[in-house]
Amino acid sequence: MTAATSDILLDRMMSLHPKVIDLTLDRVWRLLAALDHPEQRLAPVIHIAGTNGKGSTLAMIRAGLQGAGKRVQAYTSPHLARFHERIRLTDGLISEPALAAVLDECDSANAHAPITYFEITTCAALLAFARDPADYCLLEVGLGGRLDATNVIDRPALTVITPISIDHQQFLGDTLPQIAAEKAGILKRGVPCVVGPQQDAALQVIEDRAARLGAPLLAHGQHWHVWQERERLIYQDERGLLDLPLPRLIGPHQVQNAGTALAALRALDMGDPAYEAAMTDAEWPARMQRLRTGPLVQAAGRADLWLDGGHNPAAGTALAAALATLPPRPVHLVCGMLNTKDVTGFMAPLAQVAETLTAVSIPGEANTLPAETAAAAARQAGLTATTADSVTAAVTRIAADSPNARIVICGSLYLAGRVLRDNA
C-alpha cells in the first residue's frame, strides 16, 4: 500500500453521509455487526466523556497505566496533524499499512451505505483495537455521549465524566442539564463512574442517572479531593492521601484533571508507580504546549511561543488561569476560531491577562470565523485587536513590537493542528 492509501480512503469516507454530524447509533451497530462485532473483543474499556479536560485526563490515565506496566490503547479525536494520532495501539500510533487495512475493511463491509466520517472511522479504530492484545482500552467520546459512536460497549471497566459546560448546543441542547444528560449517557448499569468537578445542575443529572442504573459514583468533592500545596499535588480519598509532583501539563485546571485521573487509577487498583507516572509522564499536544523548535519559533525570536487548542468559554477561563501562573511577560494572543463557537465567551477571560489579540482565519477550514469578525468580537470582549493574514505574519509582527512577549496561539484545535503541521 502507498503512503497515500489512508488519505484516499478517508477522503472517500467524507462523502458517505450528507452531514458531518448526525447523532444516532443505528449505522454504527449495523457496521459493527457486518464486522463481526469487534467491540465485543476489546480489552477492558475506560470510557471518557465531558466538555473540557477529556483529552488531558485520558493522557494522564494512559501515562499512569503505562507506568504500572500495562499495555494501553487509546482512541481520541480530533487529530491535530495526522489522522493516525486518533488510534494509539500498545506499541504506538497505528501504522500507515495497519490504518489503511482497517479503513479498507470497514469501507468494504459498509458497502456504500450512509454513515458519517466519525462513525466509520470509530468502527475502524475498534477493529484495530480488537486485533491488538492489550490490558486496557481508553475511548474518548467524540461529541456528547449517549448517541456518540463510541458508546457501544455494554460493560466497560470504568466510565469517567470530566467537567461539563455549555458547548455544541446545536447537537446537545441549550441548557446545562440537557448537555449533562447527553454526557451521562455513557453510564452503564453497575459500572463505576469517576466524576470530575461539576456545576450543581450537571452533577444532579449525573447522580439521578447513576441511581437509576445502580452505577457507583466516585465524585469530586464527595468521594475524592485534590488541591495544590507547596508546589505539590495533594489527592485524598477514603483510601488515604497521596503527595505527588504537580502535573506535567500546565495550568491550575490540570490539577483538577489530575485528580480525576488519579481517582480512575485508584478505582482500577493501580499502585504508586501509576500515580507518579500520571503526573510526570503525560503528554498532550496543543494544551498549553511550549513550542521550542521550527520556523514559527525562529520568527518569534526571544519571545516565548505557546500553543493551546481550547475553544469554549471554560477553556478560555482555564487558559487565562494558566497564563497567570507563568513568570510575568507581556501576553499577546494569536487567535483563530470556528464560526460555531461562543467567540466572545472564549475571549472575555483572556482580556484580563493579554495586552493584544491578533485575529487570523484558519487556513483551509470552511467554518473558520473571518479574521475581521474575530477581531470585532475580541474588541467587544475588551481586548485591543488587529488582524493578520497568517499566523507567521502575526507572530513576526508581535515579536518585532514586543521582543520579550509571551505569544499564545489559541482558539481552535483546527488552528493548532495547522500550526503543528506547518511548524514541523
TrEMBL record:
It comes from the Bacteria. Pfam families: Mur_ligase_C, Mur_ligase_M. Its EC number is 6.3.2.12, 6.3.2.17. GO terms for biological process: folic acid biosynthetic process; tetrahydrofolate biosynthetic process. Pathway: Cofactor biosynthesis; tetrahydrofolylpolyglutamate biosynthesis; Cofactor biosynthesis; tetrahydrofolate biosynthesis; 7,8-dihydrofolate from 2-amino-4-hydroxy-6-hydroxymethyl-7,8-dihydropteridine diphosphate and 4-aminobenzoate: step 2/2. Its cofactor is Mg(2+). Transmembrane segments: none annotated. Residues 48-264 form the Mur ligase central domain. PANTHER family: DIHYDROFOLATE SYNTHETASE-RELATED (PTHR11136:SF0), FOLYLPOLYGLUTAMATE SYNTHASE-RELATED (PTHR11136). Belongs to the folylpolyglutamate synthase family. This is Dihydrofolate synthase/folylpolyglutamate synthase. It comes from Rhodovulum adriaticum. The lineage of its organism: Bacteria, Pseudomonadati, Pseudomonadota, Alphaproteobacteria, Rhodobacterales.
